[in-house]
User: Fold this.
Amino acid sequence: MALTKAEMAERLFEELGLNKREAKELVDVFFEEVRAALESGTNVKLSGFGNFTLRDKTQRPGRNPKTGDEIPISARRVVTFRPGQKLKARVEAYAGTEQQPQEQ
Amino acid sequence: METGNTHEKTLTKSELMDILAKTQTQLAYKDIELAVKTILEQMTQSLATGSRIEIRGFGSFSLHFRPPRMGRNPKTGDAVPLSGKYVPHFKPGKELRERVNKSLTQE
Assistant:
């Protein structure tokens, strides 16, 4: 069972007493502002949680895995995430017994 | 090939709180501050208990397992066994990928 925006809004409603509309809006705006910053070429550092960093990749040779044909992979900008110390430490402490982490 | 990180501009957690405070004018600043901390704590808790996070249009966070391996003490050179562990992994969602990549051609 994955954590979604709905559960985040629910917690803001329960713990902070925001009304449901405010809570939902705040969660939406939170992720939208992080996206907007990255879109404008700005890295995002959320101390304790982690850093979202932009990387520019130059064009490189690639291959269509089905046909084997060579096709160039165009230059692109990508987002990478580096977890912060606190998040890493807390995840490392997870023994993996309670529930299997799912790969995507 | 990578040209490295040429992005100097940074948005910090407190700057993000300032932006949110400007858009959510009906909320007190301390509520914004507490809300951001609560969101990040809940995300951390989720991963720390092995549960993934899925934010449509933003991306998903999951755990990747790093198997046990032999490491080395950099000072003495001695081999040290390192146990397996989980590390957080982020996969950007389609909208985030597209918006970020589009900004490359618009600069």
In short: Chain A has three helices and five strands. Chain A touches chain B through 69 residues (CB under 8 Å). Strands of chain A lie at 43-46, 50-57, 60-63, 70-73, 76-83. Chain A has a mean pLDDT of 91.
